Amino acid sequence: MSNVVVLCTVGTSLLGNLKRETDEGLKKKLDKNENSHIAAWLVSQDPKAGVCGAEINSMVSLVNGTLKGKKLKELVLFVSETAEGKQTGGILKCFFEKCRSDCQFDTVKVQVVDKLDDSNQHLFRTDGLRNLVRTMSEQLRKAKNSGHEIHINATGGYKAQISYATLLGQLLKAPVYYQFEGFREIIEMPVMPIDYDLTLWLEHSDLLEELQNEGMPEENEKLQNIPEALEPMLERSQGQVMLSALGALYHEAMHQQFVHMPMPNECDISPEQKNVAESKGHHRPADYDRLVQLLRADPYIVSIHSQPGRPIHTVLEFKRCDQIGEIEAVLRDSKGDQPPCCLLLKTTAKTRNEQYRLLEWLKSNIQL
User: Fold this and answer.
1) Which of 160, 188, 216 is the C-terminal boundary of a domain?
2) Residue 116 confidence (pLDDT)
3) Quick check: is 264 in a domain?
4) What is the pTM assigned to this prediction?
5) First-to-last C-alpha distance (Å) of the chain
6) Residues 119 and 161 in one domain
7) Residue 229 sits in which domain range?
8) Which of 124, 133, 165, 277 could form a disulfide with 248 if both were Cys (CB 3.0 to 4.6 A apart)?
9) SS3 of 89, please?
10) For residue 281, is pLDDT > 60?
11) Within 10 Å of residue 283's Cβ, how many Cβ atoms?
């Protein structure tokens, strides 16, 4: 029996439905945020009734249709960073923990998406949708790595939220479902013939990673020769540049495609025989010996040459080099007070694709 994880976008229409009910006891429970009691009332209703809202209607249809007979492992509810969004998520969490056995999930989580709040249109566009892509991608990746079967229910929420969730599922090869208003059953969205340019991503993945994590000033030299094809992926505001929601989606989709490509050949040198050359006057950071031990054990690294530097509060980064067979490991000081310690890694990569694939491998597998 398959273990199923469902990622579900959530709106707030359920609250509106409940507030229109004439049951005075229910209204008092809404005012007091008594989510457990509200969920119990919903459990007593027909789950296909309009009062139960789009999320319950569509989830029950999905569970009793496509997912019938499968193990319902986890349901993740993605809600807006608003009081109404959080309350709706709380009610739905209680509902899917209390409802009849054929719709119960082992675990139900509410994921609040930072800045996904329509009271600030600028932050909604620049940060909210980007955070939605990031959090959904993280949950999707986690479920995939655990070997679970993943489905996306994109029925509830803002139209933009639904659109990005749908596109994310399409690009990351997860089936996406939607229940149109007036339909009795949920349907699987047809696969769209969409893809992104992997070559473009390979050439600029380091920059996109930096823009996703921190952003940078517009005058940064790294942005001076940005290709026109990447402009829709960027958000420029108040002199700063970061990835747009579309850019975050593009970066995540390309990353997921690339991590499944073949690795380079392994080297035939044992860890203890691998050469580690240190520059004269080398100072060792606190994490240096452990990092070298990890790198020596990696089957794709042939030799290591370290450059001086003594960062104190160390952060590990991996960067690609112009030479295809080389990758740089950098121990930098997170406070910027000390020069970084750089280790040049000779690897078994023979092509640019293999170099990028190994770069992603090191980022995921070498951690201090």
Assistant:
1) 188
2) 93
3) no
4) 0.72
5) 37
6) yes
7) 198-258
8) 133
9) helix
10) no
11) 13
